[in-house]
């Protein structure tokens, strides 16, 4: 027959006092913070969502302001280009009328608009698209095109925006 199994002495079976205290403390902490530990990471999702929304809002504010600015710039350049085209008057007709009428050389309107657009620093395609809409001896109407790249909306939209400005100028003698 075999010998009955021997049990280790009672002292060897017991955990040391420190280990028992640490286990008891771990169980107490786990019971106390069990609900809080389950919510870990929920705040990170909210932070990421609000950061994305903030960037999208900033992109629309910055690029919307830039769009307004470029429209105003196009209108300013169009006003100046219309004045420049209207300054090309027919001197012989002015002298013949005794200074009572100053007809515009409207045949040169398109060339003068493109020349002014080039001098204003517009890009080649914008200069080519800028034109004299209508012209006669009394007035000229000009349209200027500006193309710009968005600053932050470029993260969502890959392309450029085009704005136009137009203006009229008349010839007055006085």
Notes on the structure:
The chain has 174 residues and is of the alpha+beta class. It has a domain at 65-170. The chain has helices spanning 10-13, 17-38, 42-86, 91-96, 109-119, 124-129; strands at residues 131-135, 139-148, 161-170. A hairpin with a 3-residue loop joins strand 1 (131-135) and strand 2 (139-148). It is rod-shaped, with a radius of gyration of 40 Å. Residues 43-88 form the Putative Flp pilus-assembly TadG-like N-terminal domain.
Give the low-pLDDT segments. none
- Reading the helices and strands in chain order gives HHHHHHEEE
User: Considering DSSP H and I runs of 4 or more, what fraction of the residues is helical?
Assistant: 40-55%
Number of helices: 6
* CA-CA gap between termini: 137 Å
Q: What class, by secondary structure content?
A: alpha+beta
Determine the strand fraction and express it as a percent band.
Answer: 5-15%
The average pLDDT is 85
Strand runs, count: 3
Shape: rod-shaped
Q: Biggest sheet, in brief?
A: 3 strands, antiparallel
Output the radius of gyration. Answer: 40 Å
Strand order in space, largest sheet: 1-2-3
List keywords for this structure.
174 residues, alpha+beta, 3 strands, Putative Flp pilus-assembly TadG-like N-terminal domain-containing protein, transmembrane helix, transmembrane
Strand-helix topology:
Elements: H1 10-13, H2 17-38, H3 42-86, H4 91-96, H5 109-119, H6 124-129, E1 131-135, E2 139-148, E3 161-170
Antiparallel strand pairs: 1-2, 2-3
Domain Putative Flp pilus-assembly TadG-like N-terminal: 43-88
Protein name: Putative Flp pilus-assembly TadG-like N-terminal domain-containing protein
Keywords: Membrane, Transmembrane, Transmembrane helix
């Amino acid at each position: 027959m075999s010998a009955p199994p021997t049990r280790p002495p009672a002292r060897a079976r017991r955990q040391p006092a420190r280990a028992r205290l640490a286990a008891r403390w771990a169980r107490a902490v786990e019971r106390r913070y069990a609900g809080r530990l389950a919510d870990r990471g929920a705040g990170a999702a909210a932070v990421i969502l609000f950061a994305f929304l903030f960037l999208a809002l900033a992109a629309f504010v910055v690029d919307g302001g830039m769009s307004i600015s470029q429209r105003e710039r196009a209108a300013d350049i169009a006003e100046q280009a219309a004045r420049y085209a209207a300054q090309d008057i027919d001197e012989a007709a002015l002298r013949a009328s005794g200074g009572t009428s100053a007809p515009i050389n409207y045949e040169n309107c398109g060339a003068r608009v493109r020349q002014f657009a080039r001098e204003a620093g517009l890009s080649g395609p914008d200069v080519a698209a800028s034109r004299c809409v209508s012209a006669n001896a009394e007035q000229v109407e000009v349209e200027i095109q500006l193309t710009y790249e968005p600053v932050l909306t470029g993260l969502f939209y890959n392309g450029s925006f085009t704005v136009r400005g137009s203006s009229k100028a008349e010839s007055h003698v006085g």
